[in-house]
């Protein structure tokens, strides 16, 4: 630079410097002319992270005063720059001064990169900073286009909230055009516009894409060896793309890969598939090159215990592409070993020539005899665990990993012949394979079981326990043994437990078992082994370690930091968090107790959760055990790496295409400027999920793998389809054939307002009505009344301004239902307010306005039934009812349809006022008004008796109706009924007569008859079946048979009473149903087929001896 060049103001761009064209340089790199500075010049670079490389030598520039500072923006966009203030004129030139200038410019957020140059001037040195301007992309708008938006943005290398430079802006168009050409749009046109916004640091990026005409396949041609065409058959037609498909190279490559896998699964183990597209004028010819190789057909020789089909299933050729002969042989060997054939050997042999279209892969199998584990010994075992305890732990792994006998298996035909005959001339019979996992030795399964035993001992404080290895003790058969029998050879060597310890008293591994005690069969040397083995598993627990102290390291905490919120200040004042005392309470480890590794890890997780709940999202907690020399005591040390407390700088919702983002954000507990608390994030996920339109919700930090003090929170939601149609057809023994049609909208107006309209019709055929009286009543009904219906329309509003825990629903229903004694029609409008403070806890307040029409079926004695109903205060006719109901439930079950653990506690109370305002005429009862309270409750518990084993289900439910006025009646649809799958399975649905029903009906008739007439005739048709008091205890044992089938053994009990004064809870007076059933597991819940026996049928009521039930789901 000439010394005569005029001086420039700080921050002014040198007009003599050439301006590079957009795209000429990589972003942030100067041109060759700029890199060639004056003699003696030096250059350094700056990025967001300072470079750790050796700085460039400044030479004669060191210490020269800075007399000039230039800032040059590269590119033709956003060239406005700011002056440098962190470096003053006259300051000595140094690397630090250059870095300060670059960091100041980068900190403004307007530049992506910066580089610095220095050169001599007559009176000092000049510092020149070259910067690459950038902008943040606030929004991306894509107009037109035919391909996926996200894939298009990834191909363009842009994203919302990402940065862009002038050079990168110029590359967007070519990248998108190349992306479209690759996917079959060779003539795509792309226009890119960057529009400035009110914020100078952000732009709106607009992409206008005209895809043009797609390039499609005109003809598909398969190219293969003529001999292979016959073997391929119709398989080649399953190639993914055909005529009319777009010439999409990634899709074609995926179709090649899928076709290759299909051929390999179909027996062509060496198949290769490729393609080529040839354009001839306007036509595009797709050539698919199929090189299937030989079709490999498996064959088996020497298999006696299992047929070819079972062995082919074991190979799994249709499910895997790993088809090397040795791998397949190993798979067959593992199949045999898992079924007790410990000595099985499988040798593969591939026949034929490489050019043959079909080759046979023959597996020669030497099965040997099935081997049984008859005994397990545990030398050196001491302590609280017995050999039986260890055996049960091992067998739990064997039962899980190894195949067992099916619920229905083939018996031994020789035993059947011996039992039923004939005993002579029956011929030879093959013995079926008996699968007993507990008596099978599989090395991999035992290794897993022994690792579990070590963990079990560690969890009990035996931190130096030595478990294993397993030694197989097996006798060698004498050559004098007769066929089918084994006479053991005498053994001179013996193995005894050493149980050695080191100088500190810690256990040492046992020496290996002598080879003479572990027979290995060798047919070539005529060595045969006994079919029974003993497993020797050394278990030396060693000393038990007890916890005597807790220590914490790295727990600094935040209470001394400035700017704490009022909540944090109160928390610090009351709890003194991160002190050793506070952390000890969080860890909840008891000093003096055995030091359990499981408890130690659980304490570590509790401490980690405590940190993350206070905003330390990137905290780490490690544990170390510091034992005493004799290993009887130990200190548990927690090493904490707190890192920075993470503060929320923004909350972004992603995936909410149809849903209002503000609706989602109102349910988020996290706030900008506040710490990111893990518990608040999880609770926010639950609250957002209750809106309804989403199939999944997750809340996480942006770039969760990168620790940073200030982070944005990203809410990812996946929306379901907003509308759905769901036709259903069903059948049950109580309702007959059922048809339902449901339409729903999950997200009206983007406000998560749900709309459900459902029409359900059911028809019960007369031959399905078992009760004679009910069949007669049903036959006398009109066709319209025989057709039962339940039509509903419901609107759900998840946000009504009362917070995210409260929702409102408004339902309208139209019901026609036929019971054994009566039929009723109801139209109702039901608004309900639901409050759900926790996932397991739900409360609801509902108000119902109903139009009811109830009609009792006439009894066998004619009008006498009306007299009974009047005396028992059971009205009928048309009424308007106003009801208010409060319900609450606490549900911790793992699944509502077939629970295996947890409990359910629920209860409710309903207040009903019913009035007859229609003057129903002759059918009008003597009780035109009803005013009562209806109480219900249920408690259920589920106890697993073994892992993946039987489950005991217990339930107790009850109900009581309390009249509020003396003459109040109870409408029959509010009465309690028993019988059926939901209560007493020894009776048909809702068919149980109340315990006092016969006496109450007789008393009611006697009041209207001549006092001198002692003969009061009562028919079962005249006795109403509902009651005002109900109790129903139930117990059921659910035993899994297979993954599909389950056996249930149940005992149901309970009773009904019409009047509360007659209640007698003496267990001897309850009604009992004992029975069993088979359950079939399905994705929608178990299908249950149950039969219950009536243990004490009442002959005076013509009760049946039992009932068969079918249902979906269990209580």
TrEMBL record:
Compositional bias ranges of the Polar residues kind: 1-10
Gene3D superfamilies: membrane protein fhac, membrane protein fhac: a member of the omp85/tpsb transporter family
Pfam families xref list: Omp85, POTRA
Residue ranges of the region described as Disordered: 1-48, 1004-1023
Keywords, sorted A to Z: Membrane, Transmembrane, Transmembrane beta strand
Keyword Cell cycle: no
Main location: membrane
One GO location term (cellular component): outer membrane
Cellular compartment(s): Membrane
Protein name per UniProt: POTRA domain-containing protein
């Amino acid at each position: 630079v000439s010394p005569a060049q005029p001086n420039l103001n700080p921050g002014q761009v040198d007009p003599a410097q050439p301006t590079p064209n957009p795209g000429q340089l990589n972003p942030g790199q100067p041109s060759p002319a700029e890199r060639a500075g004056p003699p003696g010049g030096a250059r350094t670079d700056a990025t967001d992270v300072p470079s750790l490389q050796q700085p460039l030598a400044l030479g004669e520039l060191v210490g020269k005063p800075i007399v000039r500072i230039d800032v040059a923006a590269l590119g033709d966009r956003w060239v406005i720059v700011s002056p440098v203030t962190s470096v003053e004129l006259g300051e000595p030139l140094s690397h630090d001064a250059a870095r300060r200038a670059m960091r100041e410019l980068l900190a403004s957020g307007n530049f992506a990169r910066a580089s610095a140059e220095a050169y001599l001037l007559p009176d000092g040195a000049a510092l020149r900073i070259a910067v690459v301007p950038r902008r943040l992309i606030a929004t991306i708008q894509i107009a037109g286009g035919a391909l996926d938006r996200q894939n298009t943005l990834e191909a363009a290398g842009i994203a919302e909230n990402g940065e862009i430079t002038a050079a990168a802006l110029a590359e967007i168009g070519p990248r998108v055009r190349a992306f479209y050409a690759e996917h079959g749009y060779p003539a795509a046109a792309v226009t890119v516009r960057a529009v400035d916004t009110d914020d100078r640091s952000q732009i709106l990026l607009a992409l206008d894409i005209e895809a043009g005409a797609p390039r499609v396949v005109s003809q598909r041609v398969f190219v293969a060896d003529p001999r292979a065409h016959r073997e391929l058959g119709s398989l080649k037609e399953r190639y993914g793309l055909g005529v009319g498909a777009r010439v999409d190279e990634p899709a074609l490559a995926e179709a090649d890969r899928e076709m290759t896998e299909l051929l390999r699964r179909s027996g062509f183990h060496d198949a290769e598939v490729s393609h080529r597209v040839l354009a001839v004028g306007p036509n595009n010819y797709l050539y698919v090159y199929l090189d299937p190789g030989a079709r490999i057909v498996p064959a088996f020789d020497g298999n006696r215990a299992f047929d070819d089909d079972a062995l082919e299933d074991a190979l799994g050729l249709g499910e895997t592409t790993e088809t090397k002969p040795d791998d397949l042989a190993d798979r067959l060997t593992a199949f045999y070993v898992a079924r007790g054939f410990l000595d099985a050997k499988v040798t593969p042999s591939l026949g034929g020539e490489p050019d043959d279209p079909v080759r046979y892969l023959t597996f020669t199998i030497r099965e040997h005899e099935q081997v049984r584990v008859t005994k397990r010994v545990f030398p050196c075992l001491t302590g609280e665990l017995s050999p039986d305890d260890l055996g049960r732990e091992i067998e739990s792994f064997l039962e899980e990993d190894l195949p067992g006998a099916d619920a229905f298996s083939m018996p031994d035909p020789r035993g059947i012949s011996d039992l039923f005959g004939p005993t002579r001339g029956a011929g030879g019979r093959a013995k079926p394979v008996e699968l007993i996992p507990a008596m099978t030795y599989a090395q991999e399964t035992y290794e897993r079981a022994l690792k579990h035993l070590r963990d079990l001992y560690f969890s009990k404080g035996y931190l130096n326990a030595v478990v294993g290895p397993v030694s197989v003790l097996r006798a060698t058969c004498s050559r004098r043994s007769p066929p089918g029998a084994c006479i053991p050879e005498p053994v001179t060597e013996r193995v005894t437990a050493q149980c050695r310890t080191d100088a500190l008293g810690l256990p040492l591994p046992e020496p290996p078992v002598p080879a003479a005690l572990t027979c290995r069969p060798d047919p070539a040397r005529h060595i045969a082994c006994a079919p029974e083995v003993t497993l020797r598993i050394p278990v030396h627990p060693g000393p038990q370690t007890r916890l005597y102290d807790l220590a914490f390291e790295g727990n600094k905490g935040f209470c001394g930091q400035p700017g704490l919120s009022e909540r944090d200040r109160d928390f610090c004042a009351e709890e003194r968090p991160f002190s050793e005392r506070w952390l000890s309470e969080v860890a909840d480890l008891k000093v003096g107790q055995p030091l359990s590794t499981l408890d130690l890890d659980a304490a570590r997780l509790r401490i980690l959760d405590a940190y993350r709940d206070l905003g330390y999202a990137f905290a780490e907690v490690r544990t170390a055990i510091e034992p005493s020399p004799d290993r009887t005591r130990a200190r548990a040390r927690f090493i904490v790496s707190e890192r920075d407390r993470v503060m929320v700088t923004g909350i972004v919702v992603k995936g909410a295409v149809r849903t209002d983002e503000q609706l989602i954000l109102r349910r988020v507990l996290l706030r900008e400027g506040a710490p990111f608390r893990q518990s608040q994030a999880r609770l926010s996920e639950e609250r957002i999920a209750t809106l309804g339109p989403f199939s999944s919700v997750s809340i996480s930090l942006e770039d969760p793998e990168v620790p940073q003090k200030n982070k944005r929170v990203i809410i990812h939601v996946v929306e379901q389809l907003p509308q759905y149609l769901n036709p259903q057809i069903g059948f049950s023994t109580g309702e007959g054939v059922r048809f339902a049609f449901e339409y729903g909208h999950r997200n009206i107006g983007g406000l998560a307002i749900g709309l459900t309209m459902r029409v359900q019709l059911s028809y019960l055929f007369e031959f399905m009505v078992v009760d004679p009286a009910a069949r007669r009543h049903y036959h006398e009904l009109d066709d319209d009344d025989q057709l039962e219906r339940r039509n509903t329309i419901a609107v759900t509003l998840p946000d009504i301004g009362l917070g995210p825990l409260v929702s409102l629903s408004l339902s309208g229903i139209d019901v026609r239902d036929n019971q054994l004694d009566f039929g009723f029609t109801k139209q109702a409008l039901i608004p309900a307010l639901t409050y759900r403070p926790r996932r397991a806890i739900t409360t609801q307040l509902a108000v119902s306005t109903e139009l009811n029409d109830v009609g009792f079926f006439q009894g066998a004695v004619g009008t006498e039934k009306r007299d009974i109903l009047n005396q028992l205060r059971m009205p009928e006719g048309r009424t308007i009812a106003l009801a208010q109901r409060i319900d609450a439930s606490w549900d911790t079950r793992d699944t509502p349809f077939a629970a295996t653990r947890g409990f359910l506690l629920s209860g409710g109370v309903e207040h009903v006022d019913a009035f007859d305002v229609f003057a129903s005429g002759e059918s009008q009862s003597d009780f035109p008004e009803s005013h009562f309270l209806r109480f219900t409750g249920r408690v259920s518990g589920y106890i697993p008796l073994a892992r993946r084993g039987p489950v005991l289900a217990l339930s107790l439910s009850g109900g009581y109706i309390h009249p509020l006025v003396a003459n109040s009646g109870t409408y029959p649809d509010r009465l309690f009924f028993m019988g059926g799958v939901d209560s007493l399975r020894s009776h048909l649905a809702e068919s149980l007569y109340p315990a006092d029903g016969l006496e109450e009906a007789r008393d009611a008739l006697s009041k209207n008859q001549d006092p001198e007439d002692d003969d009061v005739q009562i028919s079962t048709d005249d006795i109403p079946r509902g009651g005002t008091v109900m109790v129903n205890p139930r117990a059921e044992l659910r035993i899994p048979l297979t993954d599909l089938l389950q056996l249930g053994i149940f005992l149901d009990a309970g009773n009904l009473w019409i009047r509360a004064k007659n209640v007698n809870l003496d267990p001897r007076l309850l009604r009992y149903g004992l029975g069993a059933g088979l359950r079939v597991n399905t994705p929608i819940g178990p299908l249950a087929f149950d039969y219950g026996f009536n243990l004490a049928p009442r002959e005076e009521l013509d009760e049946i001896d039992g009932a068969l039930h079918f249902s979906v789901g269990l209580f």
